[in-house]
Known about the structure:
Elements: E1 3-7, H1 14-29, E2 34-38, H2 43-53, E3 62-65, E4 68-72, H3 73-81, H4 85-88
Amino acid sequence: MGIKLYYTTVTASRTVKSQQAEIIRILDSKSIQYKLVDISLGTELRDEMRDKAGDHSAVPPQLFNEDQYCGNYEMFSEAVEADTVEQFLKLA
């Protein structure tokens, strides 16, 4: 499977929760298959996400196509507005 969404099930931030839920809702509505990677299961997953994103302060949600970084929530949201989600996710 190509698309990976790094997210967390353990957060006190309503913003992070709503951003994650919106990404999942949009991916589901477009029938785009993805794998969820929960970084709360271990610091190694958080560090992996940050290394792949090239930003050691990156927080979820972060999107990847395999190991290729696509972007964060703000970038995804811009792609939704521009109707370029498939290109953003490197599917087209």
